[in-house]
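U., I forgot to send this yesterday:
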Amino acid sequence: MSEALPEMISLGAKLAQHARTQGDRPAISCGAETLTYAQLHGRSNRMARGLAAKGVRFGDLVTIGFPNSVDFATAAYAVWKLGATPQPVSFRLPRGELAAIVELAKSPVVIADFDHVLDVPVLKAADILALSDDESDLPDLVPPILKAPTSGGSTGRPKLILAGQPGVAAKETPEVGGFRLRPVDTVLIPAPLYHNAPFGMLTSATSLGAHVILTPRFDPEGTLKEIQSRKATWVYLVPTMMNRIWHLPESVRSAYDLSTVETLWHMAAPCPAWLKEAFIHWIAPGEVMELYAGTEAQAVTIITGSEWLTHRGSVGKVTIGEMKVLGEDGAELPPGEVGEIYMRRAAGTPETYKYVGATAKVSADGWESLGDLGYFDAEGYLYLADRRTDMILVGGSNVYPAEIEAALDEHPAVESCAVIGLPDDDLGARIHAIVNAKGQVSADDLRAHVKDRLVSYKQPRSYEFVDEPVRDDAGKVRRTALRDARVAAAKTTA
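Result:
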């Protein structure tokens, strides 16, 4: 007999429940500012009324462009309480890209600190709150779409990914929810909320009644300080953050007490094996968890740190939906052979997403690809290679940038890097490394570093040093855009 599904209520009703039962418990902290559950509920009610006065209605997508802050969380709940959908975007977006996203979303307003002039109002938190002082409860509405994150993908053209689930939470709070989150947890999220995973973690943690700690921006040592001072029990990071933390001087890392951490999740980008192993041994006895999936969430793999030590490099077994690896001819490949990863939701389950501004890549029999390459081993553990659009063909050999980037990241001076293929008359493509480094490091230093780590045809032929991080705080990098910019520059100087 199947287990009965829990009764679900709207996210707004769930927040009201927390305000009644644990109103004095901290809900969201960022820097020196903290909102209790009662304050988050009251302030989001007030903001919802302000948004309604500006034309936000049930079913709308509402663009939110704040940095990590209590305002971001307040705005999300205000939108949900109107039966609308938060559509988070980076607070650094230039006007053109923002305008294209707002047009796709048909957003009636943008909630942000942008100075951009758009065809719709751009409202700061204070502007919206000034429109109402009424913090009483609103009529209960269930948002039909939980969230609508944005993705540029490899093409750079924006698309929206509408979640397949509504904005609801379990009426009876479980002791342990998804992602090993618990109501008693102190949850640290230094990653930007405009990305899908951090935003999803914020949603899950607050619906459980946990205390969420946000940081306005990622700082390696600052993250360790937050863990120690807040006694964080649950932490979300991406590999770029892990790398920057690990490259702190050992004396700095060891100065902080991380013994309260029971669960550390990482995802969003491949994690170099050496870095993953370092964190597993450092965080012990806490568990280092990894998840692989797209924002589309058709299927998911999960692996614990304990499992990973016996399946080094894997992202785990499929726990939700289905996955398989196909070759160029569309045939399923046996264990150990690299091909394109296809996935689909479990039979009988509702759709997990819908694109606005893009079309899914679907096989003849209904399986979908996000463009990732990888293989399964004989035990069913999945290993990632890279994205098909990022693969470099060097003299007939397939080269995966992630492998080279992982080797470069081991150098203590490398803060972040990206590897692309540039046109080459002889080999078809030459490997070019774009590196953001600290201190004095030269191309020759990096050549010597990778010499014993990579076969010769995988070693970068050229290096470029830049002053800004190559990846954003969520570990994302647009290799296609980096390549196109350099190819265009070379043409103009030819």
